[in-house]
Write a structure and sequence with these properties.
InterPro entries: Cyt_B5-like_heme/steroid-bd, Cyt_B5-like_heme/steroid_sf, Cyt_B5_heme-BS, Cytochrome_b5. With about 160 residues, this protein is of the alpha+beta class. About 60% of the residues lie in helices and about 10% in strands. The structure holds protoporphyrin IX containing FE. Protoporphyrin IX containing FE binds next to helix 4, helix 5 and helix 6.
């Protein structure tokens, strides 16, 4: 029998039991899920930043959060924060906005239902490079400047009180 079919059957049975309060093998369920995912060759679908940016209309709204791609088109009206905020970030990197709101663990669990894939590795690397460069500039310029400024202030204060 095809492995994916068998895995789907096992999931179906386990999800049925998982929703029952008398049987709660959530950990076992997660482990099996991971295991079957590794065994089957189904790797997550990846998208480029350009592909994601093409989904910013009312019909199709994708957002990028922590390198995960989420199709929230059918979630717009259900979103407790309203559809407008999601539309504001349609087709864009929404990680910071999402984290700034301080979404609950329930929200993080819920978002799994809308995940359609991940940002392709190449774009992940270029994003990391950009972030790396900015933090490098911060380390190389801003820190020495603040150290010098602090030293000047301390020196001025010291000479003032010494008089
Ligand atoms: C798949 C993506 C998302 C899911 C599943 C989701 C889910 C939720 C849920 C369940 C809540 C209720 C509060 C909570 O449990 O934390 C919420 C609130 C909210 N969300 Fe989202 N959200 C998503 C993306 C976003 C994005 C990208 C933004 C952009 C800023 C956003 C902004 C907000 C705001 C402003 C609230 C209201 C917070 C409040 O009233 O305190 N959400 N969201």
């Amino acid at each position: 029998m095809n492995f994916s079919l068998l895995a789907a059957f096992v999931f179906w049975i386990l999800s049925y039991f998982q929703s029952s309060s008398t049987f709660a093998p959530n950990l076992l369920f997660q482990l099996l899920k991971e295991f079957t995912f590794i065994m089957s060759d189904e790797k997550p679908k990846t998208y480029t930043l350009k592909e994601i940016s093409e989904h910013s209309s009312n019909d199709s709204v994708w957002v990028l959060i922590n390198n995960g791609v989420y199709d929230v088109s059918k979630f717009l009206e259900e979103h407790p924060g309203g559809p407008e905020v999601l539309m504001d970030w349609a087709g864009k990197e929404a990680t910071e906005a999402f984290e700034d709101v301080g979404h609950s663990s329930d929200a993080r669990e819920l978002m799994k239902n809308y995940k359609i894939g991940e940002l392709c590795e190449e774009d992940q690397k270029s994003k990391a490079k950009v972030n790396g460069t900015s933090s490098c500039i911060f380390m190389k310029i801003l820190i020495p400047i603040s150290v010098v400024l602090t030293a000047i202030v301390i020196f001025k204060a010291y000479s003032h009180f010494k008089k």
